[in-house]
Amino acid sequence: MSNTLRTLLRYLYQLSVMILLLYGAGCTIKPDDLSSNTSIEEILNLAEAAQKKKSFKEAGDFYMKLDQLYTYSDESREALVKAMKSYHEGTELLDARLSAKRYLLLYPKGPDAAFSQYMVGLSFFDAIVDVRRDQGAALHAVREFQQLILEYPASSYSSLVNKKLQISYSQLAGQEMSVGRYYLKREEYLAAINRFSIVVNKYMNTIFSVEAFFRLTEAYVALDMRDLAIENNILFLKKFPNSEWSSKSNSLVSKFN
């Protein structure tokens, strides 16, 4: 094929893309239809057109295609950031996470590295469900947010995650409490103690720690573990002297006096 013919075909392809864009039919072109013959500007136009139509996944896919075709370009780096934002806006959490991780892989010291790490954590955080179900998302959110604080302590995004971390901790504590209560009801006291101990040792600053202390006393008393019951009660009263739960705990250990 001659150079003249190649130039002509490239021109015709680009012209067809622009015509479709001008007539608002950009969605008829899919990311997989694009090739190295498509310019960066054309791909950006397609992505922005999809974004305006609230086709967030498609917009993200176009941005990711730009990264695939023009890796390491300035536009590609910026497209990855736009991709994770588009995916997140469309609640495509896995895609948001993958695009954020790709940015971190290619540009670990890039200007948007802290934001990308935040988006990884956020993609897990937004998937957290109620405390009665598996809390894998909460565990992953905690891990990724802690990584953000460790790797980018001066970033403004580090300060954003504190509240989200607290919510994640509460979710994890809530699940431990739910399982612990189940074991307690079945009189499987050692298994219950293990769960409640996790709450008081790892998630002290959550709303579940007060009840966890009481449930520990309850389980120790049921097993007639006098010393552990008294020791737990003393610590409970020290930490939560005015709690209704600590008053109940005190009543339980009074049998040992």
Radius of gyration: 27 Å
Helical proportion, percent range? over 70%
β-sheet strand percentage: under 5%
Cα-to-Cα separation, first versus last residue: 99 Å
Main sheet: strands, sense, barrel: none
Give a count of the beta strands, DSSP E runs of length 2 or more: 0
In DSSP terms, counting alpha (H) and pi (I) runs of 4 or more, how many helices?
A: 12
**Helix/strand class:** mainly alpha
Q: Characterize the overall form.
A: elongated
How is this structure best described in words?
The protein is mainly alpha-helical and 257 residues long. Among the domains are: 13-95; 208-257, no CATH class. The chain has twelve helices and no strands. It has helices spanning 3-22, 40-52, 56-69, 74-89, 93-106, 113-125, 136-151, 156-185, 189-202, 209-222, 226-239, 244-253. The protein is elongated, with a radius of gyration of 27 Å. The relative contact order is 0.05.
How is the secondary structure organized here?
Blueprint: H1 3-22, H2 40-52, H3 56-69, H4 74-89, H5 93-106, H6 113-125, H7 136-151, H8 156-185, H9 189-202, H10 209-222, H11 226-239, H12 244-253
Helix pairs in contact: 1-2, 2-3, 3-4, 4-5, 5-6, 6-7, 6-8, 7-8, 8-9, 8-10, 9-10, 10-11, 10-12, 11-12
